[in-house]
From TrEMBL:
PROSITE patterns: GATASE_TYPE_2
Name of the protein this chain belongs to: Amidophosphoribosyltransferase
Biological classification of the source: Eukaryota, Viridiplantae, Streptophyta, Embryophyta, Tracheophyta
Region (Disordered): 1-20
Example GO BP: 'de novo' IMP biosynthetic process
Organism: Macleaya cordata (Five-seeded plume-poppy)
Amino acid sequence: MIAMEDDDDQGYIDHDNDDKPREECGVVGIFGDPEASRLCYLALHALQHRGQEGAGIVTVNENIFKTITGVGLVSEVFNESKLNQLPGDSAIGHVRYSTAGSSMLKNVQPFVAGYRFGSVGVAHNGNLVNYRALRNNLEENGSIFNTSSDTEVVLHLIAKSKARPFILRIIDTCEKLEGAYSMVFVTEDKLVAVRDPYGFRPLVMGRRSNGAYVFASETCALDLIEATYEREVNPGEVIVIDKGGIQTLCLMPHKEPKACIFEHIYFSQPNSVVFGRSVYKSRREFGEILATEAPVDCDVVIAVPDSGVVAALGYAAKAGVPFEQGLIRSHYVGRTFIEPSQRIRDFGVKLKLAPVKGVLEGKRVVVVDDSIVRGTTSSKIVRLLKEAGAKEVHMRIASPPMIASCYYGVDTPNSDELISNRLNVEEIRKFIGSDSLAFLPLERLKNLMGDDSKGYCYACFNGKYPVLPPNKEVTVKKMGDFVEDGLNGSLKSINGGWVQVPRDQLETEKIN
Ligand code: SF4
């Protein structure tokens, strides 16, 4: 039963106010710039939306690797003196949406390891679906692990590979990996960028005017450090940069790519170009489709900020109705901790979103959001708008109903916690208390993607997974494990850790 109110009644804090899927990571790689660590730091700022719980940078200077990682925002982990400790003209960086608990810091990337012929650092965005099998195999053969991250498996496989030169070790390793990985590696003399054959997670390449190469999860990072976008790292491609220039290799036979459609719906910044398509344009068109498919008489269109704004603009323009800021988001509450004794219903959502009475009073309001996960936040938003005087509240969702969890590097709750997996649209409408509710139809979403449509993963909307974990049982992580700000986690799971579920529940293996 999806019932936030029940949680409150049992004495648990209201943790679902940020009821969204979460991107796990963002990665950056710089080669050939004397300011590599500072550029990396700035690029990580641009990618902060992809992970707020940990950040790290590794630089290489005269064959010496220097690493600084920490828990928190990029601005909390780094300062001038720390960046001064990271000399060198190549660097990789990582922002992470991480787990709670004492193991948190050691899971913050990039990771660095030494092997027979040198050292290698890696930063990874994604999730390996065969992580358990690989780790079990390595442990049976004597490997010792320091973290619970699937990325450490990659380093072990590189160290154990007998291939030479180094680049063949990476290829040898990647051929054993299944699932989602966009990774950057740094060695004494090389920067390597790799994207899995499905291309689930994005990775782009750019260049600065001084010739330095830049890799990043999104183009917004390139823009910030004045690197010109050159192209995507193609699915299944390995790009090697060293003083001799650039080399590209094909990792393995190309399968049909399966880029994550959620990057366009929610994860990526609207100013990014992801999978060759403007995120802003996508979201605006999602809103326009909603206005065409699910029109309603209304006086004003508002957004659930920030992620619903562009779709709301599209809806308003298509419907010919004014767009107003009916909800104001506070950007300063991210790490507030609510004491368990403060059992105040809707406290969390009110901290983050404030209604504007002057916009809402007596109005028929269309409110556009990017997605509904458990439905608890939506119900609070509807109540907030009605309490602020809205006469009618019509919820429009700029994505199809989510019915399945993700295996590929996105933190989603168990499938049975997804409200659209349990209830039909009318039942959800009743649950959230809106006067009407409509989702973006999946077929219209696919049509919009046109010829590229087959190259996208829609698994969380249709349950058709491009690649499944090989074992009968998979390890999933409860959404409630993520508790750093006190708003997002269930208290009972602070020390909850891992749970085992049968594979047929189609849960997510959450390692990274
Ligand atoms: S299952 Fe959903 S969130 Fe995961 S990669 Fe596919 S589209 Fe993206």
